[in-house]
Amino acid sequence: MLNLIKELSQAYGPSGREEEVRSLIRGELQGKVEDVYTDSLGNLVAVREGKGKRIMVAAHMDEIGLIVTHVDDEGFLRFSSIGGLLPTSVMGRRFLLPGGIRATVGVEKPEDLKDLSFKKMYLDIGAKDKKEALKEVGIGHMAVFESSFAAAGSRFSGKAMDDRIGCAVLLKALEEVQTHNEIYFVFTVQEEVGLRGARTSAYRLNPEIGLAVDVTRSGDTPEAHKMAVGLGKGPAVKVKDTSMIAHPRVKERMMTVAEKEGIPYQLEVLERGGTDAGGIHMTREGIPSGVMSIPCRYIHTAAEMVDAGDVDYARRFLVALLEDSWE
Question: For a FRET experiment, which of 164, 232, 268, 283 has its CA 20 to 30 Å from that of 138?
Fold first, then answer.
């Protein structure tokens, strides 16, 4: 699984440009499900046929990034964010643009560091002037963190763990699951900019139960905001975030299954943030939905960190949930 996580994490895939990630996942799906297709928005859907409950399980392919909004006469690129990025997370970092172009984030004046904002920052690709810059990049080009993947002890660190780690869990779970339920494994697009892919795919599939697999914040670092989630304590069962309140029946079923299988779990109340389940549960007349979350430190940075044990328990947990009768 380590090589799969590394490959997915390192792939280029900002919101709306998930092609590379989708291609990798499609390759992993060959011969493992009854049907695989890409819908109109770009969601990748893998179908495991059955006569039981129709269950949609979603993990998003896209990652946060930057988008070029202007190229000045000196060849520097102004930008805006794609998804929830803080200026402090990008300052001094190197980013990757299409075509392998690399850029460094700079700030106009040192004193701007005291009140940092994207308006005072720029991308430097090493161009001498605007004409040279425009040979390499254009308005609307998207950039993602350039950072190496690292495995140290029981921890994995790199960019886009949010939510390539969820994609990896889905891929490994579908290899193992044996169920009479009809399962739709959906690798969604544009989650970071409004849960968009989840909404459209859920409308088409009209499942009876919706599940999202995503990361969540942890409260186990020095002086962290108090939150009852930490690395190495098992996946979390979502109670609430800003996009949804988990359906009581789904949440309780998830807890029952975890206890039956001897899988350690945590309960999660996320004060800021959401997942694909926020889009799924509001589709059509409403779809009972829940979330299995993988604890993650340093979310929306170049070095998001997860625990290998949590990831493996998440795989086992998802298999057990998909094999459950849900009666």
Answer: 164
